[in-house]
Amino acid sequence: MNRPLVITEDHALLDDLVRIAAAAGAQLDVAHVPAHARPFWNLAPLVAIGADQADAVAATSPPTRDQVLLVTRDLEDQDSWRKCVAVGAQSVIALPADERRLVDLFADAMDPDPRSGSVICVIGGRGGAGASVLAACLALRASADHLRTLLVDADRLGGGIDALLGHEEAPGARWGDLVAREGRINASALQAALPAFGDLAVLSFHRGEVPAIPAQAMRSVLEAGRRGFDLVVVDLPRHLDEAAIEALTRAKTTLTVATADVRGVLSTVQILSEVRKHTADVRAVLRPGVVDDDTVMISLGIPSAGTLPDQPRLTATLNRGELPRLGPRTVLGALCTSLLRDLLPAT
Q1: Are 326 and 137 in contact (CB under 8 A)?
Q2: Domain edge (last residue) among 110, 127, 142
Q3: 114 close to 230: Cβ distance less than 8 angstroms
Q4: CATH code: domain of residue 195
Q5: What percentage of the chain exceeds 70 in pLDDT?
Q6: Could you report how far apart the first and last alpha carbons of the chain are, in Å?
Q7: Dihedral (Cα; 16, 22, 25, 28), 10-degree rounding
Q8: What does the pLDDT read at residue 213?
Q9: Do the beta carbons of residue 225 and residue 152 sit within 8 Å?
Q10: 91 with 170, same domain?
Q11: Across residues 128-149, what is the average pLDDT?
Q12: Which of 6, 133, 186, 286 has an alpha carbon 20 to 30 Å from 31's alpha carbon atom?
């Protein structure tokens, strides 16, 4: 992959640019004079020209291209915009004021094939409703259909969705490796770091003591997920923390798994009273029980997304570390296929 190009002889500015690029998961090609930059000019996804080299670059009449920036550490330089026009740059970046913006630009430059993935959250109306199983199966079904899918475990006390998939020993990054990150995460770097199985990448927790996920870390992961994946499925905890709220605010749709019994309905109504504060499109996946379906849906007051009948063999299958069959003729596979068809934009 081609790297962003920096043209500067200002060592203090270069140190800043290397540090900022590292925050975006990027490495740089560096030219101290314009002649050294010539082989990289058309190949680099982004070119950052230090103000110290602007006039020298302009004198070489480089080919016109997009994604050229003039970078200065002198906020009082009245000549910046003249230099910007002279080198064909699209904007002036003044450090340190524009540092966060430059992190974003470097991260964008390292995502050569940006996507616009949908975020779907899944939450249980009560404990044991099967929300984690639905989230995992939805992600598995999507990846089997060759949708690049990210499954995010947001329930730090849930035992680990990687264990549910039978891949708790798989090498790769977990939340503990990401919680300290601030700012933008490069989508390609995230995808490369996580445990992956075909078109499915999984972000879960380490075993042992599990720290809370900061809202900023969840925001960075979901933004990278949307840029790098077709679908992001988030398994939420029932007790909403700041990271879960962050996910809800970015969700295209939230699925609530509700059981058709009195306590299940009452618990789901309470969950919905919190969930609906943070997201608009909430739908129910119903587990049939002693209360008839119509009564449950009237009580919940949200649209139905589908029905998930009990599957006696599913728990035993998962406990053996095996994945459930999700073919179109299976109950669970048919439900996941229907949900994906209804919730994702047509391609």
Answers
A1: yes
A2: 110
A3: no
A4: 3.40.50.300
A5: 94
A6: 27
A7: 70
A8: 92
A9: yes
A10: no
A11: 93
A12: 186
Query: At how many degrees (to 10) do helices 99-109 and 11-23 cross?
Result: 60
Contact in structure between 71 and 95 (CB atoms under 8 Å)? yes
- List the structure tokens of 246: 């962050």
**Residue 167: predicted pLDDT:** 83
The verdict on 168 and 292 lying in the same domain is yes
234 and 296 belong to one structural domain = yes
pLDDT at 317: 73
Burial (Cβ within 10 Å: 0-12, 13-18, ≥19) of residue 285: buried
On whether both 201 and 320 belong to a single domain, the answer is yes
CATH assignment of the domain containing 60:
3.40.50.2300
Cβ within 8 Å of residue 159, ≥6 positions away: none
Exposed/middle/buried for residue 131 (C-beta within 10 Å: 0-12, 13-18, 19+): buried
Task: Give SS3 for 218.
Answer: helix
- pLDDT tens-digit profile of 272-316? 999 999 999 999 999 999 999 999 999 999 999 999 887 767 767
The pLDDT score that the predictor gives to residue 181 is 64
Residue from 180, 19, 24, 26 nearest 95 by CA:
19
Alpha carbons 117 and 223: distance in angstroms, whole number: 9
Domain final residue, candidates 91, 110, 129:
110
Same domain, 238 and 105: no
Confidence of residue 69 (pLDDT cuts 50, 70, 90): very high
Residue 333, token pair as written in the block: 């596979």
| The pLDDT of residue 327 | 76
Distance, CA of 142 to CA of 144 (rounded, Å): 5
Q: How far apart are CA 130 and CA 332, in angstroms?
A: 12
Q: Give Cβ neighbours of residue 30 (< 8 Å, ≥ 6 apart).
A: 5, 6, 7, 8, 14
How large is the angle between the packed helices 262-275 and 293-300, nearest 10 degrees? Answer: 30
Structure tokens of 313?
Answer: 């063999």
Number of domains in the chain: 2
Domain that holds residue 9: 5-110
